[in-house]
Specification:
Blueprint (H helix, E strand, L loop, with lengths): L22 H6 L10 H13 L5 E7 L4 E6 L11 E2 L2 E7 L3 E3 H4 L21 E3 L2 E4 L8 E2 L2 E2 L4 E4 L1 H4 L1 E2 L4 E2 L5 E3 L12 E8 L7 H4 L7 E4 L4 E6 L6 E2 L11 E6 L3 E17 L5 E11 L11 E4 L2 E9 L3 E6 H8 L6
Parallel strand pairs: 2-4, 5-19, 6-16
Antiparallel strand pairs: 1-2, 1-19, 3-4, 5-22, 7-8, 7-13, 9-10, 10-15, 11-12, 13-14, 14-15, 16-17, 18-19, 18-21, 19-20, 20-23, 21-22, 22-23
Length: 341
């Protein structure tokens, strides 16, 4: 992926006149659902109402280009519950498996790191995106990814990385320590880099079908030096700023704790998905970006996803088939962060 903003050293970044992005500008970036909906979109929403919450249902999307509804399923057996056509539109059934929040999986099985990636799991100062991060929870070992040091000096990542107990999916108290590296990678209170300041609440279970979620994100205060927008890259760190919209077929990239810098292609930008945070506790998310795998793995939750150096959103969940990215607009408007100098 072309990165015009790539640099080759970690030099202090001098940023003046930091500005917050207004909600009007955020949604001008194309991150809010709008319009009355096409006939296909209306049919998809009707089918979603019928299927959401049913056993084996993993999510749904639609493609205006193909004129088709796409249904994601946890297993082959669930295919029989989904019609081949609905309200005059073809229905494509895809067995994706379950979508899971990936910091949870980092506790269970992490792909062995390559030598060049080991520094991502160590202490990195000043802070940049793409490195190991977690909350400090006594007796709990896990890790996700620091997404970005924002331009108003906040540590941005997923809520389930810095604001949630991964064993219970319960939110932590504001003021809980944020550590880098994460506890899975040996981080302790001696590695504290800030404290939890704000998170976007997540509704779990059947209630989230009628009151869906739109973003898994949180911020912590910045208690050490950080480089706003910069992302860790073994080939030379690069900077992300401003926002970008994506469409199906676009190439996007990310820098993550486990898999480093990767690129892949956007599949759809209108997905609704059921995301598991523990083996039994799940939440329903709407208006999400699905990116073709391979893109992220366990421990990459929180990674900043960009298109040509502009912020697209945060990766937070995946199956073997697709990675799920929550959109920049929802994150910025709810947390009040600035992603532009």
């Amino acid at each position: 992926m072309s990165r015009a903003k790539k640099i080759f050293s970690l030099l202090p970044l001098i940023v003046g006149g930091l500005l917050f992005i207004s909600s009007g500008l955020v949604f001008a970036a194309g991150n809010s659902p709008g319009g009355e909906g096409s006939p296909l979109e209306k049919a998809r929403e009707a089918l979603e109402q019928k299927l959401a919450g049913q056993p084996g249902f993993a999510g749904i999307a639609h493609s205006e280009e193909e004129g088709a509804i796409i249904v994601f399923l946890e297993n082959e057996q669930a295919k029989g519950k989904v019609p081949d056509r609905f309200e005059g539109f073809s229905v494509r059934k895809e067995v994706t498996g379950k979508f899971q929040a990936l910091a949870i999986q980092a506790m269970e099985a992490v792909t062995p790191l390559q030598t060049s990636q080991l520094t991502r799991t160590g202490e990195v100062r000043p802070l940049v995106g793409g490195i190991s991060l977690s909350a400090y929870i006594s007796g709990t070992s896990y890790a996700g990814t620091l997404g970005m040091v924002t331009y108003n000096n906040k540590i941005l990542s997923n809520a389930h990385v810095i604001a949630m107990n991964p064993n219970t999916a319960k939110f932590l108290a504001l003021g809980t320590a944020t550590i880098q590296p994460g506890s899975y990678d040996g981080g302790t209170l001696a590695n504290q880099v800030g404290v939890l300041e704000k998170y976007i609440p997540i509704t779990f279970g059947g209630t989230s079908i009628t009151k869906p979620n739109y973003a898994d994100a949180a911020i912590a205060t910045l208690g050490v030096d950080g480089l706003s927008g910069y992302q860790f890259d073994e080939a030379g760190n690069y900077q992300v700023s401003e926002t970008a919209t994506v469409t199906a077929g676009d190439s996007v990239g990310k820098s993550g704790r486990t898999t480093g810098v990767t690129t892949s292609m956007v599949y759809v930008t209108n997905a609704s998905v059921k995301v598991y945070y523990t083996w039994t506790k799940w939440a329903y998310f709407k208006d999400q970006i699905a990116v073709n795998q391979p893109f992220i793995q366990s421990g990459d939750s929180g990674s900043c996803v960009d298109k040509g150096g502009s912020f697209v959103g945060l990766a937070f969940a995946a199956s073997d088939t697709y990675a799920i990215v929550c959109k920049a607009g929802y994150i910025i408007s709810r947390l009040g962060v600035s992603v532009s100098p």
